[in-house]
Design goal:
By secondary structure, this protein is of the alpha+beta class. The protein contains ten helices and 16 strands. 25% of the residues lie in helices and 29% in strands.
Length: 341
């Protein structure tokens, strides 16, 4: 859909409250049926509003935004803080150029639009009182922590590689500036920061004839619905915290069964396959390698239930530039959770 060709449809889509894809395949073409992977979008207004609420900006503060996209979020910040208080960085030249032009048309040309790698932040205008990312990350870059003032806030969609389910986290920088900590707030799904973008492994690359022959066979009474069914399920996010260096891949549904693969992202090449039954009977499980990935998943699921199924708000993240630690209820109290990859 193009705005110039179908202005009414375009306007309806823009006002619908849904995310609006604005670029496909890193701008290799104009989309129009050719696109394979969405590479930039205007986020759903509800998500934008929630993240800006978490950011908690006030007049007189300076903000760094990572992921300019259309420039809409930077424009909202500029209306609140003044255009000179906003720096936004975009890795894609064409997107940065278009966003700069859009901001100028709205009288917000004083916003600093930088074309560069957001992973590095923008030290030239640091320090900032707030840092916000409109792209998903698996690790919070040390540069963002270094460029944010003590007591400042960093709001970012964060997730593991387990699934594409992420959660926004609102981190407050410690008084010494060496770490930041805060709770997860909302389940979201964002395109990855390009510096951390990674294709999903193909399970067929893991499953050799030898590994199939040696795979251990078992069963599970857990159902797909209780573990991995919903893209927006808190259990899926939590399992990603507890089963590190692992990704979930859904295979084509078979008659009466849904195959789900778990693949280790380490050099061990471990894998598991669960043939989830639709009739509620125990499902068959195959596991291979030095890790028993489904056993880890079952143990993680049991731990989560034993802890009272903690959700967002009870779960949080601490980063210090070298490592990341997940906690439950009390910052820096790991409560049995392994460090995320």
């Amino acid at each position: 859909m193009e705005r110039t060709r179908e202005p009414r449809r375009w306007g309806a889509a823009a006002e619908s409250g849904d995310p609006l894809v604005t670029q496909w395949d890193d701008g290799e073409h104009q989309g129009l049926g050719q696109g394979r992977v969405a590479s930039s979008s205007a986020s759903a207004p509800s998500v934008v509003a929630a993240m800006l609420t978490d950011l908690d900006v006030h007049p007189g503060q300076r903000v760094l935004e990572v992921g300019t996209g259309t420039g809409w979020n930077a424009g909202l910040l500029a209306r609140r803080l003044g255009a000179r208080a906003v720096t936004t960085i975009e890795v894609d030249q064409a997107l940065a150029r278009a966003a700069r032009a859009a901001l100028e048309r709205q009288g917000l040309g004083a916003v600093t639009v930088v074309c560069g790698d957001g992973f590095q932040g923008h030290a030239a205008r640091a320090p900032y009182d707030r840092v916000i990312a409109t792209c998903g990350v698996h690790t919070v870059p040390a540069a963002w922590l270094e460029q944010c003032r003590p007591g400042g806030r960093i709001v970012v969609p964060w997730g593991t590689r387990f699934t594409r389910t992420e959660a926004t986290v609102a981190l407050t920088v410690a008084d010494d500036g060496r770490s930041a900590s805060g709770p997860f707030t909302s389940l979201v799904q964002f395109m990855s920061l390009r510096a951390q973008r990674q294709d999903l492994p193909a399970y067929a690359d893991y499953v050799t004839a030898e590994s199939q022959e040696k795979a251990e066979r078992g069963t599970t009474v857990l159902t797909l619905g209780a573990t991995l069914a919903s893209e927006w399920d808190i259990s899926r996010f939590v399992l990603g915290l507890l089963v590190p260096d692992c990704v979930v891949v859904f295979d084509a549904r078979q008659e009466g069964r849904q195959p789900v693969w778990l693949c280790s992202l380490g050099e061990d090449r471990s894998w598991a396959c669960v043939l989830f039954r639709e009739d509620g009977k125990p499902s068959t499980v195959y596991q291979y390698g030095s890790r028993r990935l489904w056993d880890e998943t079952e143990a993680a699921h049991a731990w989560w239930h034993e802890q009272g199924r903690p959700g967002l708000g009870r779960l949080g993240l601490t980063v210090d530039g070298h490592e990341q630690r997940i906690w439950v209820d009390v910052p820096d109290h790991a409560a049995g959770l392994p460090s995320p990859a």
